[in-house]
Amino acid sequence: MSSRAHRRVRFGEQCDDGTNSGGYGHCAPDCTLGPRCGDHVLQAKQGKQCDDGNLVNRDGCARDCTLERPG
User: Fold this and answer.
1) How many CA within 13 A on the CB side of residue 53?
2) Of 18, 15, 20, 23, the residue nearest 6 (C-alpha)
3) How many Cβ atoms from other residues are within 10 Å of residue 5's Cβ?
4) How many CB atoms lie within 10 A of CB 33?
5) DSSP E strand stretches across 1-71
6) Nearest 5°: CA angle at 71, between 53 and 69?
7) CB burial class (10 A; 0-12, 13-18, 19+) of residue 61?
8) 13-67 confidence digits (pLDDT tens)
9) 0.90 cut: is pTM over it?
């Protein structure tokens, strides 16, 4: 895999956002997806209240990783 940021996803890469800083919601330097909503990991420091691994609303955990109220 390439660690060079070129804004095009090439074979063997999961992502390339042009900077590949690896921050929350961004592409990592090795062109793999960095931490983000929907990755099954609760990153409370980034404001996640839940992470059920999907981006579907009305299942208890909203697509922005906040808890939904029942009803």
Assistant:
1) 1
2) 18
3) 15
4) 15
5) none
6) 50
7) buried
8) 999 988 888 889 999 999 999 999 999 999 999 999 999 999 899 999 999 999 9
9) no
